[in-house]
Specification:
The chain is α/β, with parallel strands linked by helices and about 950 residues long. The protein folds into 3 domains: about 5-230, Spore Coat Polysaccharide Biosynthesis Protein SpsA, Chain A (Alpha-Beta Complex); about 360-775, no CATH class; about 790-915, no CATH class. About 50% of the residues lie in helices and about 10% in strands. Strands 1, 2, 3, 4, 5, 6, 7, 10, 11 and 12 form a 10-stranded mixed beta sheet that branches. A hairpin with a 5-residue loop joins strand 8 and strand 9. The two termini are about 40 Å apart. Pfam families: Glyco_tranf_2_3.
Length: about 950
């Protein structure tokens, strides 16, 4: 018996596909009772094509949804008095194979219990790639086909089986079932209505089969964005995601609904993070908009659930057809793998293009030489990895250097405090408090903002379990290994840019180890200068990112701008003077480019990326820069971070890469400077070596200008921070020496090769001498800081800021100074705030009155300022102690040292004077900073597009 079938074809602006679709419908081997077409306001020739091909065409406005179009077709079928057994639904971008309907009807005849049948969907126009063989949905709303991306049809899935749903393109459904279920849901105008319909059918006890012998070729025009309609708008992903969430919420079991609501909210946040990681900001916002749209209109979900409630007689059967619970987690792992692969492929692509550019511009004699094989690279493929590692002296020496560095840095495993480093706070919440507060209860209260390095340190401490000590220890412990890794990557790329074979690996080993030891031999590591240690670690990574400015493609130059800007902001957070140097270098580089290549400045993609990178720093550090200037603390923009006094640097220090009175012997640094001078000899690499010397010259000029500046602070007079300039100069010398060595290696004249060998022996003094000195030096960063304050007072001060301790040092003859200790004392992040805070003259007058002519009113004012104890550390001045002994309102307190005197203020404590106004400007700047960091991170990341490509 032949079943009666009416084909229902829905069209909207499908003129490019309709001729083929019409031919496919006419070529069906199974008979059709009628073909009914519904055109929804097409602006092309779709309606004309349909009227020429078929007798019955229903014209509807462009706002007609797909469910409404199907309903219009059913009404016309009923009006004509036709009662077909089957309705065959077709899209205008889906052409059926001549045997598609025949195979569907054959499967229906073989299984009379089947009410919905669907064909195998293949991609059009490729015709071989599989799109769907039935679909289901995961607990997170993902449309699941069970196919691999780009999988070809080789008959591997050719078996008839029951599924949750089939695509509406080619769906064969019993007319009675379609009418009984109310057709497709009007709340799903274009996407997701097939899964919702299949779920409702399964819950009502109907069976849906996939018939692989029936083949339909589908262009997926709406999904791919090839065709936009009033229903999809410009945000196809929004409509798809809203449909998925609606389907889950409308069909889920009642007892699972509360958990599903929470899960989808958290899942949306995770999906947004994933989209941001692959720089798909629009899709992230579409996900959020879809969730908010549904959660803001709960009545829609309630109405949908009520409509489904009476028909749900087989919920367990429908649940068995859903995707497994673990599938979303597998997809998450796949995404992370794709992201890692994208980053790796992008890095390999950049390296390959740089090698190609180097080969294109290299001299013929150089190109003729055989290039170092990929199998001989340090980090090659995994085959024989262990064997190659054990037989590779470079790999062994690098590993040995890392082990030696970790052993030499063993002091970082303990508590670090001393020299330029204050103790770390008790918990990471203290750092987050400094970052977010607009008024700090330090000293007598201050609105000076927290230094910018507090933010990255707080993030690091949070990742490491909330321990600030672990964060500081990690910076000191891994500074050398991370610096060596970054220097190896940078020097390898630089070497390949100037010599096609690249710098010899022995030279790369020497250069990377020497650079990693710069913060050690200059004295910053041992004396606890956290900022210089951190910036020395970041600099080679920053330099590597800056190489992207030389990329021939403008798009890649702009992407390099975001990476450079982010790394430069990180470096400036630890060493603010770095921004001044970067601005000066940017000006010199752009000016030189304008002189060498006339007209280059007219191209915005030439000067724009470096300008954007430099301009990003004030934006990313705005919560510090703007309030610092506003609060009269602009000196912080030119000071090194850490405790006073900061180390200085004279001409010899700059040349030898040493901070004043710190670091390894000066002659080790002079050897490096001499090597940089001799690097000018090889002609092959003379130009890039001159570039290094130009950078060094600009750095020296900036250092000379800043050396003329000093700042009168409340506590002392401090010079401008030259530490980072010392580090940069060492980097310039080192890169020049590496390039010079590469030039000597390419010179075929034996005498120069002999000279290179002698210089290589001398160069070995730099890293070896640095390591030997490091092992034999005493690190001041482990000495701790003696407070001379009794323990019980310290414990009391930790109870709150109103339990402050006034510490008066010095003598009447030589002069007295005072400090105020609150909480757990001065910790990392607070030094710069207190240093840059202007003197509170009223409080100074109260202290002067206290030590000279104390009165009850003065004691009351100190108590109101949150002072509980007054301490004269050893050796206490007898005259001052006698005055305080006789002061009314002061009670003598015990002290651990005999020569230390202490008094307790016998007044009710009041810390209200420590409270200050909220700066809404800084609150806004913190929000702007957070948004800017996220945006820049997204712009820095590689792009991964998991959607199918447009045919």
């Amino acid at each position: 018996m032949v079943s009666s079938v009416v084909a229902l074809l829905v069209s909207h602006d499908g003129g490019r596909w309709l001729p083929t679709v019409i031919d496919g419908v006419r070529a069906q081997r199974a008979p059709l009772a009628a073909v009914l077409a519904v055109d929804t306001g097409s602006k092309d020739d779709s309606a004309d094509l349909l009227e020429q091909a078929f007798d019955e065409v229903v014209l509807a406005p462009g706002s007609t949804s797909f469910p409404a179009a199907v309903e219009l077709g059913l009404e016309r079928v009923r009006e004509r008095g036709q009662l077909p057994e089957w309705i065959w639904i077709l899209h205008d971008d889906a052409t059926p194979d001549p045997g598609a309907l025949e195979a569907l009807l054959a499967a229906a005849a073989a299984d009379p219990g089947a009410d919905v049948l669907g064909p195998k969907l293949r991609e059009w126009p490729s015709l071989r790639r599989l799109l769907e063989l039935g679909v289901t949905i995961t607990g997170t709303g993902r449309r699941e086909t069970g196919l691999e991306r780009g999988e070809y049809d080789q008959g591997q899935h050719d078996e008839v089986r029951e599924v949750l749903a089939v695509n509406s393109a080619g769906m064969l459904v019993r007319r009675t079932v379609l009418e009984q279920l109310g057709g497709f849901d009007p709340q799903l105008p274009i996407f997701g209505n097939d899964i919702d319909f299949g779920w409702r059918a399964a819950a009502a006890g109907h069976r849906t089969l996939i018939v692989p012998d029936a083949i339909v070729f589908h262009a997926e025009a709406a999904h791919r964005g090839v065709r936009r309609t009033p229903l999809t708008g410009r945000h196809t992903h929004y409509q798809e995601r809203r449909a998925a969430l609606y389907t889950l919420l409308a069909n889920a079991r009642a007892r699972a609904l509360p958990w599903l609501v929470v899960r989808l909210a958290f899942g949306t946040v995770l999906r947004m993070i994933g989209f941001l990681l692959v720089r798909s900001v629009g899709e992230a916002l579409d996900d959020l908009a879809a969730l908010l749209n549904l959660y803001a209109h709960p009545g829609e979900i309630r109405a949908a659930r009520r409509a489904r409630q009476d028909r749900a007689v087989a919920e367990e059967h429908a649940r068995s057809l859903l995707a497994p619970w673990w599938l979303p987690y597998r997809h998450g792992l796949d995404f992370l793998g794709d992201l890692a692969a994208a980053a790796t492929n992008q890095a390999a692509d950049v390296a390959e293009r740089r090698r190609a550019a180097a080969a294109e511009h290299a001299p013929a004699s150089t190109v003729a030489r055989p290039r170092q094989s990929e199998e001989d690279e340090l980090f090659a493929d995994d085959s024989g990895l262990v064997a190659r590692f054990l037989t590779n002296p470079i790999a062994l020496l690098l590993t040995l250097t890392v082990v030696v560095a970790l052993v030499a840095a063993r002091a970082a495993f303990g508590s670090l405090a001393g020299g330029g480093l204050s103790p770390t706070p008790a918990g990471v919440g203290d750092w987050w408090g400094l970052q977010t507060e607009t008024w700090h209860p330090l000293g007598t209260g201050t609105a000076v903002p927290a230094p910018p390095y507090v933010f990255p340190m707080a993030l690091l401490a949070t990742v490491l379990g909330g321990s600030p000590l672990a964060a500081v220890s990690a910076v000191f412990l891994f500074a050398v290994p991370l610096g060596m890794w970054g220097a190896w990557r940078f020097l390898r790329v630089v070497g390949r840019l100037v010599v096609v074979t690249g710098a010899p690996r022995w030279v790369l080993l020497w250069g990377s180890v020497s650079w990693a030891l710069v913060p050690v031999v200059c004295g910053a590591w041992g004396d606890g200068w956290l900022g210089l240690v951190a910036v020395a670690t970041v600099l080679p990574w920053l330099a590597h990112a800056a190489l992207g400015f030389a990329d021939p493609e403008g798009v890649r130059r702009w992407r390099a701008a975001w990476r450079v800007g982010l790394l430069l902001a990180l470096g400036c957070a630890f060493a603010p003077v770095l921004w001044v140097l970067a601005a000066a270098l940017g000006l010199v580089v752009v000016s030189s480019a304008a002189l060498v290549v006339r007209g280059a400045v007219r191209d915005r993609s030439v000067w724009g990326p470096p300008a954007a990178a430099i301009g990003l720093v004030p934006l990313l550090l705005a919560p510090w820069w703007i309030p610092a200037i506003q609060r009269g603390a602009a000196e912080g923009l030119l000071l090194d971070v850490g405790r006073l006094p900061v180390p200085t640097a004279d001409t010899l220090d700059l040349l030898s890469g040493r901070l004043d009175g710190l670091g390894a012997p000066w002659w080790i640094g002079v050897v490096l400077a001499v090597l940089a001078v001799l690097a000018l000899v090889p002609r092959a690499t003379r130009i890039p070596v001159l570039v290094c010397w130009i950078v060094a010259l600009v750095t020296a000029v900036v250092a000379a200008l800043l050396g003329l500046v000093s700042f009168s602070l409340a506590a002392a007079t401090a010079p401008a921070g030259l530490g980072v300039l010392v580090v940069v100069l060492q980097g310039c010398f080192l890169v020049a020496a590496v390039l010079g060595a590469a030039g000597f290696a390419t010179d075929l004249r034996s005498w120069r090769r002999a000279v290179a060998g002698v210089l290589g022996v001398a160069a070995a003094v730099v890293p070896l001498g640095g390591i030997v000195w490091w092992f034999g030096s005493d690190a001041a960063v482990t000495d701790g800081i003696d407070t001379d304050i009794p323990v019980y007072m310290v414990q009391s001060s930790e109870e709150g800021p109103e339990h402050g301790i006034l510490v008066v040092r010095g003598t009447v003859e030589d002069g007295l100074t005072y400090t105020v200790r609150r909480g757990d004392g001065m910790t990392v992040g607070e030094d710069e705030i207190v240093t840059l805070t202007a003197e509170d003259h009223d409080f100074t007058d109260d202290v002067q009155a206290l030590v000279s002519r104390p009165s009850p009113e003065v004691v009351d004012q100190l108590a109101a300022a949150g002072i509980e104890y007054v301490v004269l550390p050893t050796p206490a001045d007898g005259d001052v102690a006698g005055v305080l002994d006789s002061a009314s309102g002061l009670v003598q307190a015990s002290a651990e040292e005999r020569t230390t005197r202490a008094w307790q203020i016998d007044r009710p404590l009041d810390g209200s004077q420590l409270d200050g106004p909220t700066s809404w400007l800084r609150v806004v700047l913190l929000v702007v900073q957070g948004v800017a960091v996220v945006v820049v991170l997204v712009l820095c990341l590689p792009t991964v597009n998991r959607r199918r490509s447009t045919p």
